[in-house]
Structure to design on (270 residues):
């Protein structure tokens, strides 16, 4: 199993102005652990959340449920120190590489993506769920 | 640098019915290379795209620009074989672990996230852009 090398494919530079908040005021931000490669969570940033994130060096999101800025860790202490931020080709998604102070998920799980989706069709979902692993 | 272990934190099972298409008909799907840990792209799935993905064992998205189902690789040959799919805690984001047949990005880059965002404020962005690496 090769080591995770987050800088392997970085070949360009983007500016904050390149983030296309005109397309949508909320941009999805994938949060990934820079050391393990684990994807921790998907959250959203508006322009102010991104500005605060850059200022603080820790993740700040827009909470869609609470309709306010949300400094990740403000209640749990599980802040996420930002190592680098990457913008996708069409400027409407962010990848944020972090060193987390603790679990990312409000359930206490390290990552929000702790559930595997089974490929069992609904009609047989009560009997033999088959994980998609290897499928 | 530790090896990327995508199954490390998987502790539960989710069903297709757990994906909350009621919240939004389009669910963001993070596509990650299962071998390298590299995040390749963020795309969107509607219910049919997810069903086709599970059927085919390759990624199928909803193209927002073309407003149609899009079997990734259908023109480039750069299909993405699905190894496993993971659902987040609140059922509104997917993590798809894949083995890609080629670059994920339409630009030819391996990942769509090939640009680092600089933290230089707009007023000085013409002079000394500083990558956020290590910041």
């Amino acid at each position: 199993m090769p080591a995770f090398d987050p800088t392997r494919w970085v070949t360009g530079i983007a500016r904050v102005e390149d983030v296309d908040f005109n397309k949508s005021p909320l941009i999805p931000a994938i949060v990934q652990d820079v050391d393990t490669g684990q994807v921790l969570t998907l959250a959203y940033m508006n322009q102010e959340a991104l500005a605060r994130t850059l200022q603080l060096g820790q993740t700040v999101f827009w909470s869609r449920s609470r309709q306010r800025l949300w400094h990740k860790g403000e209640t749990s202490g599980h802040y996420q120190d930002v190592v680098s931020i990457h913008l996708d080709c069409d400027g409407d998604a962010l990848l944020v590489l972090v060193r987390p102070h603790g679990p990312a998920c409000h359930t206490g799980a390290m990552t929000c993506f702790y559930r595997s989706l089974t490929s069992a069709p609904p009609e047989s979902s009560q009997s033999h769920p088959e994980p998609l692993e290897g499928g």
Q: What stands out?
A: DSSP finds one helix and eight strands in chain A. The CA atoms of residues 78 and 101 of chain A lie 5 Å apart. The longest strand of chain A covers residues 80-87.
